[in-house]
Each structure stands twice: as C-alpha cells, then as structure tokens.
Amino acid sequence: MPDHAPLELERFLPYRLSILSNTLSQAIAREYERRFGLGVTEWRVIAVLARYDGEGLAAREVAERTAMDKVAVSRAVARLAAAGRVIRRTHRGDRRRSVLRLSAKGWAIHDAVAPRARAHERDLLARLDADERAWLERILDKLAPARPPMKAHLTDR
Amino acid sequence: MPDHAPLELERFLPYRLSILSNTLSQAIAREYERRFGLGVTEWRVIAVLARYDGEGLAAREVAERTAMDKVAVSRAVARLAAAGRVIRRTHRGDRRRSVLRLSAKGWAIHDAVAPRARAHERDLLARLDADERAWLERILDKLAPARPPMKAHLTDR
DNA sequence: GCGTTATAGTTTCAAATGCAACCATTGGCA
DNA sequence: TGCCAATGGTTGCATTTGAAACTATAACGC
To answer: In this complex, do A7 and B114 lie within 8 Å of one another by their Cβ atoms?
Structure first.
C-alpha cells in the first residue's frame, strides 16, 4: 500500500488565507449589509467611485479597480443606481461607455461606512506588533502587488 | 464641502487578502475542476478524510475541519458518495451520525491532486525569502490560528 | 464608405450557496 | 417510562453567482 502523504489542510497556505479572508470580509460585510442593505460588491463600487471621484469612471474601470468581473459590476451598479446612490450617464463621444459618479446619497454611505471599515482593519492590525505589520505589508506586496493608482488622463479623455 | 477621506481600497488589508485568496483558490481549483470535475468543497472534504483516515469521520467533524457549514458538507458528500469517491455508512451506536471514508477511487483522486496543490503552494512561497516565509507563518498564526489536530478518541467513541 | 472585428455593458440560464424548516435519533430528566 | 430538548443530517426555496450569448457602439482595414 502506497503512503498517501495526505495534505494537511489546516497548514495549507491557500486554505488558511481563504479562511482568514472570508472571516474578515464577512465580519465587515455583516455590518453594512444590515445597516445599509449594501452587499460587498456594492460597497466596493462605492469605494472606488469615491476614490477616483471627479473623473466619472466607466464600468470597465470599476471592474479593474475592484477585481470584480464586469457582470458583477453591472449588477452592483444597477442596484446602486436604482437606489439613487450612483448616477449613471453616458459618455459623450463613446456611447457604449457609462460614466459613473456617486450621488450625495452615495457619498453619505461612503462617509458612514469608510470609518467603520478602517476601524475593522485597525482592530485586525492591533493583533500584530510593529514588526509583524511591516513584514505583512512587505509580504503582501510581493504576493499580491497593489495596483498603482489610475492615471486619470489616460482613462477618460 | 466636507473632505470625504475615501478609502483606498487597494491598500485595504481585508480587500487585499480577499484578492490574494481568490486568485490562489481559483488557480488551484481550475485544475482539479477540469480534470476531475471536483469543486472546492468536494476537494476539501477529500482532504480532511484523507488526513484523518482510519477513524471514519462524521459529517459534523468534516464541517469543523473544513470551515464549511453542514449543508455544504452534506451536499459535497452526497456528490462524492454518488460518484463512488467516499463511502458513507451509519455509526453503530448512534444512527444519526454518518461515518465517512475515502474509497479507493477517492484516494486516487487525493493522491493525484495533493501534489499539485502542494506545488502551487511551493510556487507561491518561492516568491518569498526565508525570513518572509517565517514571518508569514507567524503572522498567520496570530490572525487565523490553525486548529490543532483532532483527538481521535474524543470524537468517535 | 463598408464590412469585419473589438469593446462596453446587459441579459439569460444553470449551477452554487445560504437559510430555514424539517426528519430521525439520542440524551436528559422528572 | 415517557416526554422534551438537543443533535446529526437532509431537503426546499429563494438568492447569488458565473459563463456564455446577445445588443449596441466604436475602431480598423481596405
């Protein structure tokens, strides 16, 4: 009989990351889910629209920035627009593209949720000491490079 | 006008972890999905059954070990059993409980998939140097403690 | 200019997921 | 013993998700 060398799931890196990530996301999600009827996808859309405000993003750009696929973005935006949280217009000069912006209502939600999200992050990082935080930063940069901020003039002429 | 202090999604820890985790899981999942028609949930069940073999786990125990809820386990096991990949019997002495074991077919899949999973992990860790790996280990232990191996005699009398 | 190809975004259908209700069995305990 | 609560597991239903097909518009090549 061969020795099967079973995988030790609980030490397996992708598994542990998955658990950690789900635990965190769910904890945060619960909050704005309950208080604003806001799903994770919708929150992400709001977050990037807030960050790259003033330019009016196309859905595709939102997709790139949120790591969601275009279908997910489309649906999230549809819900947000229906709730009057984002304003969707059509790009003049390219009528395929949409131009998305937060409405006042959208901004209000952002301003309410963002601090809580940061608080969650802070709580999480509080479990680490300064060294560990620095290393984590560095390790994440290697494993999952954060994309550089978008260049406005290249994306929306 | 208030300054909105937008959340920088791409530096937000839970977000980055989520991206990383999804990227990894999907990369691995694609492989056994295509080659064995095996979903993530099913693979996880196989992994824990392999690891705690010889004891015959109850579904509830599988759920604990995989961080899946009991419904997900139930369905994964149903598919696996239907495909002849796990053997499901009833616990003598407690007829509510099931006793789950890998069949030869199940073991074959495990033995085919496990090395590839490990290879993925290796590739990932290869991007880090020894220091970084050690710190990652330590950080993960703090943020998402790996549960200690199950004590056989306590769980299956 | 006209046909072809590419891109933005939406819709549709199937599969995955989650939740609550449910059935069966067991364990407590009066 | 005989009830009631707790546990293991499954099922039904509603929601979410993903992949591919589809619509509309724009860009390209000749």
So the answer is: yes
Identify from A1, A12, A42, A150 which residue to disrupt to test chain B contact, counting B C-beta atoms within 10 A and taking the largest count: A12
Q: Which residues pair with B90 in a beta bridge?
A: B98
pLDDT tops 50 at residue A155: no
pLDDT digits (tens, 9 = 90+) for A70-121: 999 999 999 999 999 999 999 998 999 999 999 999 999 999 999 999 999 9
- CB atoms B28 and A13 under 8 Å: no
- Domain of residue B85, CATH code: 1.10.10.10
Q: What are phi and psi of A100, to 5 degrees?
A: -110, 135
Of B7, B17, B142, the CB nearest to A127: B142
Count up the domains in chain B and report the number: 1
Strand partners, B102: B86
Determine the distance in angstroms separating the CA of B6 from the nearest CA of chain A, rounded to an integer: 5
In total, chain A counts a number of residues equal to 157
Q: Give a yes or no: residue A6 inside a domain.
A: no
Nearest chain B CA: its distance from A22 CA (Å): 7
pLDDT, tens digit (0-9, with 9 covering 90-100), for B109-142 = 999 999 999 999 999 999 999 999 999 999 999 9
Phi, then psi, of B143 in degrees rounded to 5: -80, -35
Contacts of A86 (CB under 8 A, 6+ apart): A45, A46, A49, A77, A80, A100, A101, A102, A103, A106
Is residue A2 assigned to a domain? Answer: no
For residue A99, the enclosing domain spans 13-155
